[in-house]
Amino acid sequence: MNPPKTDARRRHDPQVRGFASDNYAGAHPEVLAALALANGGHQIAYGEDDYTGHLQQVIRGHFGAGAEAFPVFNGTGANVVALQALTDRWGAVICAESAHINVDEGGAPERMGGLKLLTVATPDGKLTPELIDRQAYGWDDEHRAMPQVVSITQNTELGTVYTPDEVRAICDHAHRHGMKVHLDGARIANAAASLDVPMRAFTNAVGVDVLSFGGTKNGALFGEAVVVLNRDAVSHMKHLRKLSMQLASKMRFVSVQLEALLAKDLWLRNARRANEMAQRLAEGVRAVHGVEILHPVQANAVFARLPHDVSKRLQKRYRFYFWDEAAGDVRWMCAFDTTEDDVDGFLAALKEEMAG
Q: Could you give the count of Cα atoms lying within 13 Å of 229 in the half-sphere of its Cβ?
């Protein structure tokens, strides 16, 4: 049978690379192959398909026998659904000031989830029990939103990584105060690759209650999942997912992507590649006079400070974002498909513009 004719055509140069975001990368070929295998025929809609059923087994292999996955469309949806499931209507969430839920989700936790975010300034994007205590008070004060959840990001928005012991300390502290713990794992694979430990080592094994598992930044076409690790911590997940417009009718196409990443080691291979390229980039940047690396490079992000005019010229050659334009701070991200040649080409361009 001949394939159907189409007027679709490639409208971009696949050789072009940037360092703006790991979201810029396409889907991994193994993920696309899995999507093709899941296509054809009829499967029950709304998550009762064979692929979503099998995904539960795969998730439990990583996060324990009690784990349950609820596939969703995107990371914002995963975070909003997860935080709603952990809070009452009067509840609040303690998070780092730099947290994605605070600065990069367009107010979705507040407007869609009805949540109050209690933010804490951190030097490196990481919360500690002591920092949490700056907002962990007033549970009986009806004039203040009640702190019910601590949300951490692994790895953080500044590219730093919590150790398992650091996460355990946060979980123990939060639970002693009657609060629950949510982990935003948009780049959880990069954190596990950096630490060289299984993902469970800093999630269910140390007390995290609910996880937002990220696939898109690690080679999926689209799709994340809310992973419930402590079923006693949440309520009405299925209803909240639907109410939040995150219930996919053809869920098999979300689930099979996550299965492709997690069933073997694709998730880890992709994350290691991105992390290794960030290390290569950082090593090269350190040799460029006048460029300062701002934070430890522990995953797939490099934060740097350089002259503003140099960054503006460099952006005409490679896409990347300012993190704090007034200060001259930029963020360079590596993806699962970033190559050594990509990094070396960028470093050569950086040196040219710095000498410019």
A: 24
**Contact indicator for 320, 332 with CB cutoff of 8 Å:** yes
Distance of alpha carbon 267 from alpha carbon 352, whole angstroms = 35
Helix 29-38 with 252-262: angle, nearest 10 deg = 140
CB neighbour list of residue 101: distance below 8 Å, 6 or more residues apart: 79, 83, 93, 95, 109, 117, 151, 184
Total Cβ atoms within 10 A of residue 211 = 27
Task: Identify the band that residue 3 occupies on the pLDDT scale cut at 50, 70 and 90.
Answer: low
Read off the tokens for 236: 């009405």
CA distance 162 to 171: 12
Give the angle subtended at the CA of 318 by the CAs of 223 and 266, to the nearest 5°. Answer: 35
- The C-alpha angle with vertex 179 and arms to 175 and 183, in degrees rounded to 5, equals 90
Closest CA to 118 of 145, 155, 154, 81: 145
Per-residue pLDDT band for 235 (boundaries 50, 70, 90) equals confident
